[in-house]
Structures are given as structure tokens and as C-alpha cells.
Amino acid sequence: MGIETVLDMKHRQKPFRGGSMEVLLVNGSPHKQGCTNRALEEVASALDAEGIETQIFWIGAKPVGGCVACGGCAARGACVFNDSVNECRALAADADGFVFGGPVHYAHAAGSLLGFMDRLFIPTAAQASRTPFA
Asked: What confidence score (pLDDT) does residue 31 get?
């Protein structure tokens, strides 16, 4: 999704609450203040200039594994692995949009970012009943 698409989204009616749009930018680099963060700061600056609230969340330098299909999230409403994924889920609940940034290692995004995304959007039973997931 290009920046133009994100900016066009601000003109849509917000279904559940009024106010400005909020976009969560996720830094998937192990380097908190590295090149990925700098790129996300540029995106945040462009969005802020359009009146869109932004927040950058760093997933951390520790490895983040993917989902192990244990089903614990259905019972707890959060992943059983208590790490940066659960911290971000709380922020993600209020976000209207997301921008994921990460370094490219060996022709794909960093493994920690992929594992992070794999677990971030696993729905709880309540979410799955009212939200389309693909």
C-alpha cells in the first residue's frame, strides 16, 4: 500500500469513533534507531502533516517466533508467549491503519518481523465473530 492510499483512507468515515485517524508504525529491525526507524519516521512525518496521528512501536532485538498453533490465545485473548507481540496488540486495537517496516535479509523481511506479524493478527474468539480475517 502506497502512502497515497494511506492518506486517502483518512477521508473515510470512522465506524466506531470520531476524531483523527491513528496509524501504528511497526519497526521490525533489531536496531531501534537504525535505517528502518529512519524510514518510518519519514512516513510518520508525512502522515502527521496530513493530520493523521502516528506512533512507532519497536518489536525489540530479541528473536520473535511465529505461531505454534497451541490455541492458548483463544482462551487468554492474548498470545501465551508474553513478549512484544502482546504489548503491540494493546496499541493495535486502537489503530486505524498499520505500516510495517523491516530490513530485508536474504530476499525477504527479517524473520523476527514475520513471526511478529504471524502472531499479532491472530484473532480472539470475540474478534473473529465480528471481524473478517483472511
From this structure: 96
